[in-house]
Specification:
Elements lengths: L1 E4 L1 H4 L9 H13 L3 E4 L1 H16 L5 H16 L4 E2 L6 H16 L3 H12 L4 E3 L3 H9 L7 H4 L2
Parallel strand pairs: 1-2, 1-4, 2-3
Helix pairs in contact: 3-4, 5-6, 5-7
Length: about 150
Amino acid sequence: MRLYADTSFLGSLYIPDANASVALRRFEEIQSEDCVFLVTALLVLEVHNAIRLSAFRRVFTVADAEQAETTFDADVDAQFFHRAPMPAEIWKTANELSRLHTCQTGCRSLDILQVAIAILLKVDQFLTFDQRQRKLAIAAGLNTPDLVTSYS
């Protein structure tokens, strides 16, 4: 199974937030299944930035943020996540998703880009805690489980 996630899911594996325990449980399941968890350069940037923003917001210290980034990078290097190239059609697909769904979902551009990537990478499942983004992903035809309900 091919998986792709947004920052709300992947960041929760490295940032002590309200979704961290659910993200960790799902990630442990993913590791025990025959899954390929894809990341792109955009997702790597977003996770790094989310970690740094957590330090800015005093969720944890700068030293803790640096350690979280080091751990994330080591996990990518260890191929817990598989690097995927940014799909060439991303802008066209994202613009189409925006045209079709933004007025109904209120999604931001980065959320739309992540859903467009998931579509173009032909993933079997898209993971997110962001309910607006989940609504967009479902409208776009992606299998997007309700992680909060599934793991409560």
